[in-house]
Design goal:
The chain is an alpha/beta fold and about 280 residues long. It has helices at about 20-30, 35-45, 65-75, 95-105, 115-125, 140-155, 165-180, 205-210, 235-245, 250-260, 265-275, and strands at about 5-10, 30-35, 55, 80-85, 110, 130-135, 160-165, 185-190, 195-200, 220-225. The chain folds into three domains: about 5-115, Cobalt-precorrin-4 Transmethylase, domain 1 (3-Layer(aba) Sandwich), CATH 3.40.1010.10; about 120-225, Methyltransferase, Cobalt-precorrin-4 Transmethylase, Domain 2; about 235-275. Helix 3 packs across helix 4 (about 95-105), helix 7 (about 165-180) runs antiparallel to helix 8 (about 205-210) and helix 10 (about 250-260) crosses helix 11 (about 265-275). The structure holds S-adenosylmethionine. S-adenosylmethionine binds near residues 91, 92, 93, 117 and 218.
C-alpha cells in the first residue's frame, strides 16, 4: 500500500486561519516535513498536537535530497505532510521539487489549500483580479533584475510581487521609474495580523509614502497592468473630427484615420458619419 504526499497551507499570521483539514493532516501525518522545524513545532504546540519524533527539515538548501528520501517513505505507505513557515508550500517556498519527485515516482499528491499572501493582497488591492501575474520575488540586482522589471512594465495583467521590508522602497522606486509615476499600486503589509494595512495610490505617491516611514513587517506589492496603447473610440473620434474640420469628406477622413491610427476603416467611417450628421 502506498501513502501520499500532502502539501498543507498554514496561516500567514493569524492562527485563526488554520483549517480543520490542516489540523487533521498535522495530527495524522506519519512524517511531518517542515521548512523550519522550530516554527512548525511552535504551531503544533499552539494547537496541542504532539510532534512525536515525526518532524524532519526540508528547506530550499536540501529539498532535492530530502524529497527523494520522503518519496521512498511514501512508496512504503507513509503519509508525508509538508508545511512551510507560512502560507502555501511551493509558492515562493520549497515544495515544488517534492511534488515533481512524487509525480516521477507515480505517487499521489494531495493539497490542503489555505492562506496565501499573494491572493489575499490581490483581492484587497482594488485592482483587476480577472487576470493577474504572480512574480514572486524580483531578482535583487543586475541584468536579471532589469530584464524582469522590463517584462513587468509591459505586462498587461495585474502583477503581484513579494518583497522583503528593507528592499521594498528601492523596488517601488525602480517600478516608478520604469512603469511611470501614474501607474496604480497597492502595498499590502502584515496581512491577517494586528498591524494589517493596505495602502493604495500611484507609484509616484508610493515612493513618497515609503520614504516617510521605515518599512516593517511583510509586504506584497500589487501593481496595475500596463494600459493598452491601442487607440480607443475616443482617439478615433478626436482624429476624425480634426480631419473633418480641415474640410475632408467623411470617406477621406475615415481613410486617413484608419491608416494613421491603424484602426478598422469601418469604425472610422461610422464615427465620421455620426460626426457629420450631428453638425
Ligand atoms: N508561501 C507563502 C504564501 O503562500 O504566501 C509565501 C512565502 S514567501 C517566502 C514570504 C513572502 O510572502 C514575504 O516576504 C511577503 O512578501 C509575503 N507574505 C507572507 N506573509 C505575509 C503577510 N502576512 N502579509 C504580507 N505579506 C506576506
Amino acid at each position: 500500500m502506498t501513502g501520499s504526499v500532502v502539501l498543507v497551507a498554514t496561516p500567514i499570521g493569524n492562527l485563526g486561519d488554520i483549517s480543520e483539514r490542516c489540523l487533521e493532516a498535522l495530527r495524522t501525518a506519519d512524517v511531518l516535513a517542515a521548512e523550519d522545524t522550530r516554527r512548525t513545532r511552535a504551531l503544533l504546540s499552539h494547537f496541542g498536537i504532539p510532534a512525536s519524533g515525526r518532524l524532519t527539515a526540508m528547506h530550499a538548501h536540501n529539498e532535492a535530497a530530502v524529497a527523494a528520501r520522503l518519496v521512498e517513505k511514501v512508496a512504503d505507505g507513509a503519509q508525508v505532510v509538508y508545511v512551510t513557515d507560512a502560507g502555501m508550500p511551493g509558492i515562493s517556498d520549497p515544495g515544488a521539487r517534492l511534488v515533481s519527485a512524487a509525480i516521477d515516482a507515480g505517487l499521489d499528491i494531495e493539497v490542503v489549500p489555505g492562506p496565501n499572501a499573494a491572493l489575499a493582497a490581490l483581492v484587497q488591492s482594488g485592482l483587476p483580479t480577472d487576470r493577474f501575474a504572480f512574480e514572486g520575488f524580483v531578482p535583487r540586482k543586475g541584468r536579471d533584475r532589469a530584464d524582469r522589471l522590463g517584462a513587468i512594465a509591459e505586462e498587461p495583467r495585474t502583477v503581484v510581487i513579494y518583497e522583503a521590508p528593507h528592499r521594498v522602497g528601492a523596488l517601488v522606486q525602480d517600478l516608478a521609474e520604469l512603469l511611470g509615476a501614474q501607474r496604480r499600486i497597492a502595498i499590502a503589509r502584515e496581512l491577517t495580523k494586528v498591524h494589517e494595512e493596505v495602502w493604495r495610490g500611484s507609484l509616484g505617491e508610493a515612493v513618497e509614502h515609503l520614504a516617510e516611514r521605515e518599512p516593517r513587517g511583510e509586504y506584497v506589492l500589487v501593481v496595475e497592468g500596463a494600459v493598452s496603447e491601442e487607440p480607443g473610440e475616443d482617439d478615433v473620434r478626436a482624429a476624425v473630427s480634426v480631419a473633418l474640420a480641415r474640410g475632408a469628406s467623411g470617406r477621406d477622413a475615415a481613410d486617413e484615420v484608419a491608416r494613421t491610427l491603424g484602426v478598422p476603416r469601418n469604425l472610422a467611417y461610422r464615427i465620421a458619419t455620426e460626426l457629420r450628421d450631428s453638425r
